[in-house]
Design brief:
The protein is built from five helices and no strands. It is mainly α. α3 packs antiparallel against α4 (56-72).
């Protein structure tokens, strides 16, 4: 299965109410990406899963790490989109 297909599958799983299942897929996908901007995007999806699971501190750490990657690569739009809404 392609990376794109795995990401779509994970998003669908998360949207059906299984953030833990989606997180497992996103975690494997991010390990296999070579492009840092793509990695940061998937990290944003991982952070959202953690939010849904109530792991707000972990979500915030992942959002911050992803934002730093995007910032290092000059992706200011990506940084703006990565702003967490982690509220306990």
């Amino acid at each position: 299965m392609s990376v794109q297909a795995l990401i779509i599958k994970a998003v669908n799983i998360r949207e059906k109410g299984d953030p833990k299942g989606a997180l497992e897929i996103f975690t494997e996908v991010v390990k296999n990406l070579d492009n840092p901007i793509s990695q940061a995007g998937v990290m944003g999806d991982m952070a959202l899963c953690h939010q849904h699971l109530g792991n707000f501190d972990t979500a915030a750490l992942i959002y911050t790490a992803a934002s730093e990657i995007l910032s290092q690569h000059g992706d200011v739009v990506g940084v703006a989109r990565m702003r967490p809404s982690c509220h306990q």
